[in-house]
Amino acid sequence: MHELASLYKQLSPIDFRILVGIENEMRRHKWVPIENLQIYTGSSIERLRKRLEFLRGMKIVLYTKTPYEGYQLYYRGYDLLALHTFVKRGTLDAVGGQIGFGKESDVFVGLKNENRVVIKLHRAGMTFKKIKRDRRYLADKEHFSWVYASRLAAQHEFKALKILYPEVSVPEPIDQNRHAIVMGLCEGVTLVDCVLKDPEFFFDEIIENTKKTYELGVVHGDLSEYNILVSPDGITIIDWPQWVGREEINADELLLHDLSMICKYFKKKYSIKKDPVSLLNYFKS
């Protein structure tokens, strides 16, 4: 992210217009012809090539010669477009180091009005088959780019946070653009990385927050010890790109899976025995 911040300062207005052009044209082209970018910049082909050469050197865009001269956004280019929008909106003042990563996202710390925030960049397109299988919002899409998949993942997660916050202990949703979300920073460590002095208390906190989530019409769909933060004040449930609505056909099945994962973890680590089916009935009653 520090590297991105440095790159951001080096980009000119025409560079951002080029990136927006590639982003828009990737809806219709796997590789965007250089001629298509002229309408976004009003520049000559010669000037475009010069700026594109710079963007290629910075690993902001990708390039091919066959079957024609074409360009794609690299993840770094999409990151810069999202950051540019956040800066223009006043959502983000500074970016810092990475505090989390996974197969489908990278997470960084940032500053907004001297308050620390979290910047989550979705990488949903890295595993297309799995993403399409697990994501309802892509189920009816025959063809999609990683740009499109990542943006939909961010929109989907941000929607869940807007529904749940502040009734449920989730990160505060601040802003969303493209594949990126800005959220409030939550203190704590993941459940899997700590030893609880009062595991019964934290188990109850997880169950009650999951019940509130269900009452608000949402099922997490991927709940486990890896996406629950714990602190002396309680818990925070994170990572919502796989959520489904309570009325969807497989919602109860996914909710039972979530409850089973939590019960299994607390039984194995703390010898707390709870029945996920009984908990499901408790939720539905």
Tell me the name of the CATH homologous superfamily of the largest domain: Transferase(Phosphotransferase) domain 1
Q: Can you count the beta strands?
A: 13
Report the portion of residues in β strands: 15-25%
- Oligomeric state: single chain
- Tally of DSSP helical segments: 10
Helix fraction, binned, reads: 40-55%
The class by helix and strand makeup works out as alpha+beta
Q: Quickly count the domains.
A: 3
Average pLDDT rating: 91
Short description:
With 285 residues, the chain is of the alpha+beta class. The protein folds into 3 domains: 2-76, Arc Repressor Mutant, subunit A, CATH 1.10.10; 90-184, Phosphorylase Kinase, domain 1; 189-284, Transferase(Phosphotransferase), domain 1.
Task: List its salient traits.
Phosphorylase Kinase, domain 1, three-stranded antiparallel sheet, elongated, 285 residues, Transferase(Phosphotransferase), domain 1
Account of the 3D structure:
With 285 residues, this protein is of the alpha+beta class. The chain has 3 domains: 2-76, Arc Repressor Mutant, subunit A (Orthogonal Bundle), CATH 1.10.10.10; 90-184, Phosphorylase Kinase, domain 1 (2-Layer Sandwich), CATH 3.30.200.20; 189-284, Orthogonal Bundle (Transferase(Phosphotransferase), domain 1), CATH 1.10.510.10. Helix content is 44%, strand content 20%. It contains 10 helices and 13 strands. It has helices at residues 2-10, 13-25, 38-41, 45-57, 75-89, 128-134, 146-164, 199-215, 251-270, 276-284; strands at residues 32-33, 61-64, 70-73, 94-101, 105-112, 115-122, 173-177, 180-184, 189-190, 218-219, 228-231, 234-237, 244-245. A 5-stranded antiparallel beta sheet has the order 4-5-6-8-7. A 3-stranded antiparallel beta sheet has the order 1-3-2. A 3-stranded antiparallel beta sheet has the order 9-11-12, covered by helices on one side. The chain is elongated and about 70 Å long. The model has no long low-confidence stretch (mean pLDDT 91).
